[in-house]
Amino acid sequence: MGEIKPPTGEPGTPAAGQREYLSDDPRDIGWVKQNVPCQTACPAGTNVPVYIREIIERQYGRSYETNREANVLPGVLGRICSRPCEAQCRHGWPGNGEPVAICHLKRVASDLKDAGHRITERLYSPTGKRVAIVGAGPAGVAAAHDLSLLGHDVVIFEREERAGGMLRYGIPEFRLPRDTLDIELHNALRLGVQIRTGVEIGNKDSQMPMGKLQEEFDAVLLATGCMAASPLPLLGEWEQRDLRGMEGVEYGLDFLMEMHRGVEKTVGKRVAVVGAGFTALDCARVAARLGAQEVTIHIRTAEEYIPVTQEEIFEAKREGVRIKGLRTPVGLTAEGNRLTGIEFVQNRLGGWRSNGRRQAIAIEGSEFIEPCDTIIIAIGQQTANDYLGTRLELDRWGNVRIGVDGMTSHKGMFAAGDYVSGASTVVQAVGHGRQVAKRIDAWLMGRERRKQVVRIVPVEKPLRERAFDFITRQHMPTAQLDERMRDGKHEVELGLDENLAFEEAKRCYLCNLRYQIDVDRCIFCRACIEVAPRNCIKLVRGVEIDEQGAYGKLLETKEWNQVGAIWIDNNECIRCGQCYTACPVQCISISRCELTEVEI
Amino acid sequence: MAEANRKVRHHVIVGSGVAGSQAAETLRECEPDARITILTLSSLLFYNRYDLPKVFRGHRDWREYLVYPAAYYRDWKINVRRCSRVAGVDARRRVIALDHKEEIRFDTLLVASGGRGYIPEDLTDFRPLMHGFSSYTEAMSAANQVPKKGHVIMLGGDMIGLDLARTLLETRHRVTLVAGPNTFWPHEVDEEERPALIAALEQMGIEVVEGADAGGIVSIEQGAPGLSARRVLFRDGTELYGDVVMPFFGLSPSVEFMLGSGVDIERGLLVDPALRTTTEGIYAAGDVCQIWSDAERRYRFYYGWKNVRAMGDLAARNITGSSDPWVPAQDEKLHISGDGKIQSPFWEYA
User: Fold this and answer.
1) Which of A305, A318, A485, A535 should be substituted to probe chain B, the one whose Cβ sees the most B Cβ atoms within 10 Å?
2) Could you tell me which CATH number the domain at A37-120+462-507 has?
3) pLDDT of residue A552
4) Most-buried pick from A90, A267, A319, A485 (CB within 10 A)?
5) Yes or no: is domain A130-227+383-448 CATH 3.50.50.60?
6) Which of A471, A352, A349, A96 is nearest to B88 (CA)?
7) Contacts of B101 in chain A (CB under 8 A)
């Protein structure tokens, strides 16, 4: 590993003879954040281009470890991630085709690594500090792993019989096989983390009081997620009525959790699922496996706006699930205590909400009824705070408020994951768990012990070929319908094999490669501009520096007498290497820039 | 001169089917000086898709299907850009991006891209082994695959497929229909009406297999040389052998290029009764749009040649200053005549 060098001259330019070095220059850090959109979009900060490059090199174990540096559950997230990275992938930008199957490639690293693969961890010496974590879901597990590496003694308290939280109890096995989950949880927690399952925090006799945790531990992290199903807001006579206990009414998360606790669940012939997230989709697919003849997901807006991947929607439809849009339930119909149908009102699409979701506006007088035997309500989850025995400051949505140090309004009590953000995604929970773990460590030790820098490695030649840009996205092989439905647990996505993975990995632009022109050596021949497939090489007067000290807007010019430099616009660049090959004076350099952490 | 040029509006129509072509004609009538451009994915000028069953009667020359000769477009000053795939629409900049990176500016846009044959998601794996029928090219491909007196297996069986079945039976082909819940799409048929309609199909000479009774289709396979070209295998173990398998499950609106444009979409483009989308200056007509029905208090599709043509005409009139509401142009009721034959208004075209 190199040393941190003070910024001298142009950032990203290694000194003569230097092979690799670390930079804390804000221009370099800013460059990576601007130019590697997948990594920036990943809440866990996964170093996507590096792990994909390692797949091209068929170094699957190393690729898995690159993933693990940011996220301790690569095999899990390689299956069920919501993929914010793919939404930002440069390959998916207009005119560039479809995004790289980043998530599927993450799974490749997990699936194709050697059975006896060696895990690498950077262990700190023991600190003598004790941390209690409440909740063994993705945020709690990620935090526990990082805190234990940092030398703290960690104990997780989990009310369920097994660790995993939403991963184990909220996601069906056909999307997430439990052997994969078990292995990765074990790997995450094996470094001395104690886990006490079946222990509920609360104030009843059978429960562990929160006060006791605060006495016995130096810090407490609350990571209990969002485990209370949101009630369905209905109108008229149904507005005040408690739907629990009504025959044919299920709440999505409870439905899945009970099933995964071993309760035998049944549904009617006609199942209506109300909701638009992964839980709604999972419930619908489970209902199809439980023998429902007609399963329909009813959504307020339209399919285009539901926050699940297109592949999940397609697979649900293959299994016979239908999606009907522009409708909001306003009431139910029943015979006695038995559900017979749902009354909807027709919607039109409205503006955008602050959370980026589309609004639905009910159209007066457009009510209609759809018959069904079972309704599964999956419109979201809320946090539950009654177990705390103390009042924490909450935000306007009822979630616990934390400061920049990750601490709640109680000293020494931290919070992470969905418990803070409200119902989000697994990768957000993992990312937030890690962030808060770092804050807890800083608080316990009285100082930050690690900082972010950019590792800059000179690269001798382009790592891609222009032909790679024309490879289409490789599709995930899936199980036959009969196999899926046979026991309800058969994994649907089968994983990319080595050949498919290799083809897909080649599509990655490797956005962490920085192409730069040495202006002192450039002869302004324009050869690079001639061969560039996009408008990526520009004549500029200068480059602005933004507030964070990173490169900002390029000041382009068409007047030769104003040209200060020929500049590679790395935002437009697709790393095809054409310019590098065409340059007659070899004034274009390539360096690999990746965010990493070092000890302070 | 420059001032005069700016006043000439550019009306762009995506789709050269019945709705798009009718709209172009009405636009020209209402706005003689306007610039009118039709973008179509097809390599052919506007042709009569409803006549395509005639390929099985031996009418294979594409010229026979053209509604207008090429001179018509010259005389009416309608610029038709064939083989043009629209990649996206930027409603704010009023620009259409074509797949080959060209950008076209518009003042008004009419989306009349129609629909393509829908294939249920559980059958999509078998798409390469099925023959569609929604274009001249597809119709020719199917006709070339079926030998004289050959056996056509129809899956689903919407009114487009059943129309084709009539021709196939008249031309002495054998037709087996794997019926399903949408066999009479776009007619909405209730449980009580269905048995009589199925019986009428059988009386026509169609061999009907109820797909659900056989547990649904498990696979479609290609036959080895010397055997039937296709095998359809059902979950209960029964099987069908034929020369082609043709899916007819209704239409799926072609809206992919409008995703992200800012225009509201549910299944089709959502339009008000004047066929205006939620974005100013962008209209939709034909099988691609869901029209708000005040009477039914819901957005709904209207199918059929007469409806689609009327939509094209209405959209053009509203683009050029009118504000008329949509009025359906044809009956939607499925009938069985006195002699036991099915009568559908969707089969009436000329």
Assistant:
1) A318
2) 1.10.1060
3) 79
4) A267
5) yes
6) A96
7) 95
